[in-house]
Amino acid sequence: MKAIPLVLLALLSLATSAWAGEIYGAIKEGSQPVKKALVEIKAPNNKAYPGSTDDLGNYRIIVEETGKCTITVQFNGQSAQGEVQSYPTPVRFNWLVEKSGSGYSLKPQ
Length: 109
Hints:
Elements: H1 3-18, E1 21-29, E2 32-33, E3 38-42, E4 48-52, E5 58-63, E6 67-75, E7 78-86, E8 91-92, E9 95-100, E10 103-108
Parallel strand pairs: 1-8, 1-9
Antiparallel strand pairs: 1-2, 1-5, 3-4, 3-6, 6-7, 9-10
């Protein structure tokens, strides 16, 4: 009888993680990967999900909420932003960092 509440608790914890969405992709400057850059995705409720790029410019961040989010990339001491959409299933967003005046901007690739 004690096993039933434990099984229900385990199923409930799996069910909540099933709603989490994965946002992944690559960030480049021209044809070069943006290495070891800090990446943050801010969900519609303003909760922030941090991550970073690897040596190939790839990032992968799990976002618990769905909806329109803001992605921010720290590059050369400055930040560049763009919009991404979080879904219950994985979604890929590739970005290009471009010089824009005295700062940088993110462009979908």
